[in-house]
Amino acid sequence: MNSEAWWQEESHDTYESSEKRTEYGTPLPRETVCRNMLVVFMRRDEKWTMGSKRILSTTASSLKILEIIIKLDGATLSEISDEIEMARSAVHTHLNTLKEYGYVVKDGQFYRIGLKLTHFGEYAKSQREAHSLAEKWVSQLAEQTELETDFAVEENGRIVSLYDSTKYSTESTSFTDNGRYFYCHNTAAGKAILSNYSDDRVNEILDKWGMPADTPRSITSRERLFDELQEVSKQGYATSIEESINSLNSVSCAVQSPREQVCGAFVVSGPSYALDENRIGNIIRPLKEISRKYENDLEQYYNTG
Fold first, then answer.
1. What is the DSSP string of 24-44?
2. Cβ-Cβ contacts under 8 Å for 135 (sequence gap 6 or more)
3. Rounded distance, CA 222 to CA 206, Å?
């Protein structure tokens, strides 16, 4: 049976069974019944999230599959099926759709992220022209500190690095991987940014994402976090000592636009042997200087924009 015949049969059956559902003695119009059927069928694919927002489960599954492929650095059909706990046939349909539109590619038995997504990421960055001003300062900060540096922003309650640079190593750590999301409560950038938010906004973020313990040193208490945010606000910088990634330390300063809106944070990171708590004290001055220079650039940008 083709889709049109199926729809006609279903519509007819539903219409016939609805003749008893009358309003003031008048049968419901056939158009109304069909429209209601469509709503019912669409809602079969909906699920609810925190905050009473409806999302489409098929779309959520496809996006989850993309995240799994990234997490596993390429994955087979079986690996994805096991990870997402979905039938192989259903996963295969999602993958075929993603592959058809260029979001994934198949390499032998492995599925990998398609380069088409690079365009989306670059486009997203280009939409925030003020953020692009930070790129040159990230590089200068790396030259001065001889450590890994990056400029990170908060989006949807998570921290993501937009620009990074490193001088002491040929490879960046997993924190400065552009586009990778991190939690706010256990990263230096996250705490630097949160210290500028209202308590309500901070609680909103924590309610949504929780406070997972990525390492044994991660903060998992709201009371402790709020105490630290007060200290961060006073001193003008935040630190993360092996809280987000084992053996990785970082220090960060948040930056504001002339409109006093937080627009991101500069971060200096390094392995604990290269950036111990004693050396962090020497990093704060150049970090704050770069932050001020970027804010000066922002002021000129907004004045001439």
1. TTEEPPHHHHHHHHHHHHHHT
2. 151, 163
3. 8
Task: Report yes or no on whether pTM surpasses 0.85.
Answer: no
User: What is the identity of the amino acid at 89?
Assistant: S
Residues 197 and 215 in one domain: yes
Phi/psi at 193 (5° precision): -75, -45
Using one digit for the tens of pLDDT, what is the confidence trace for 182-239? 999 999 999 999 999 999 999 999 999 999 999 999 999 999 999 999 999 999 999 9
Q: In 3-state terms, what secondary structure has residue 215?
A: coil
Residues 95 and 209 in one domain: no
Q: Is residue 30 part of a domain?
A: no
Closest CA to 238 of 220, 253, 218: 253
Please, which residues have CB within 8 angstroms of residue 15's CB and are 6 or more apart in sequence?
30, 33, 34
Amino acid 53: pLDDT: 67
Confidence class for position 259, pLDDT limits 50, 70, 90:
confident
Q: Which neighbouring-strand residues pair with 160? A: 153, 181
Residue 112 reports pLDDT greater than 50: yes
Number of Cβ within 10 Å of residue 213's Cβ equals 13
Q: How far apart are CA 159 and CA 187, in angstroms?
A: 8
State how far the Cα of 298 lies from the Cα of 301, in Å rounded to an integer.
5
For tokens 């990421």, name the residue: 121
Distance between CA 240 and CA 215 in Å, rounded? Answer: 11
Q: Which of 155, 159, 158, 152 is nearest to 131 (CA)?
A: 152
pLDDT (0 to 100) of residue 297: 92
Which CATH number belongs to the domain containing residue 294 in this structure? 3.30.450.40
Structural domain of 62: 55-118
Choose between 283 and 170: higher pLDDT. 283
**pLDDT interval class at 69 (50, 70, 90):** very high
Residue 181 and residue 171: Cα distance in Å, rounded? 18
